[in-house]
Amino acid sequence: MTIGLNLPVQILNAQTEARKEENYGAEDLGEMIKKLEPRVDGTLCLKNRSWIPYFGDLRALIMHESHKSKYSIHPGSDKMYQDLKKLYRWPNMKAEIATYVDICMTCAKV
């Protein structure tokens, strides 16, 4: 993937926004929020995978880069999920990835 070098800053900003009390209802984090651990750079992770919150449209950016980069060549949802789950975590991740791949116009032509 070729996501820009400022991704950790974007993740930290989105995590900060998501943890504001007025934003707790934006997504159902359940017990996951209690299990998050801080990294040296200040970002939160779960089992060494970066938590990608609903804020900042980072999920779409990450899925776009993973699915449409010249190095990945439109992987299916299972392959894409297996690759992304090594680095990232968010609620309903597998379902969101499947939906993203399902609506890909290039994949629909195959």
Automatic annotation (TrEMBL):
Gene Ontology molecular function terms on file: RNA-directed DNA polymerase activity
InterPro entries named among the record's database cross-references: Integrase_H2C2
Pfam families the UniProt entry points to: Integrase_H2C2
Gene3D superfamilies: 1.10.340.70
Domain Integrase zinc-binding as annotated: residue spans: 57-109
Keywords: Nucleotidyltransferase, RNA-directed DNA polymerase, Transferase
Keyword hit for Transferase: yes
Protein name as annotated: Putative reverse transcriptase domain-containing protein
Species of provenance: Tanacetum cinerariifolium (Dalmatian daisy)
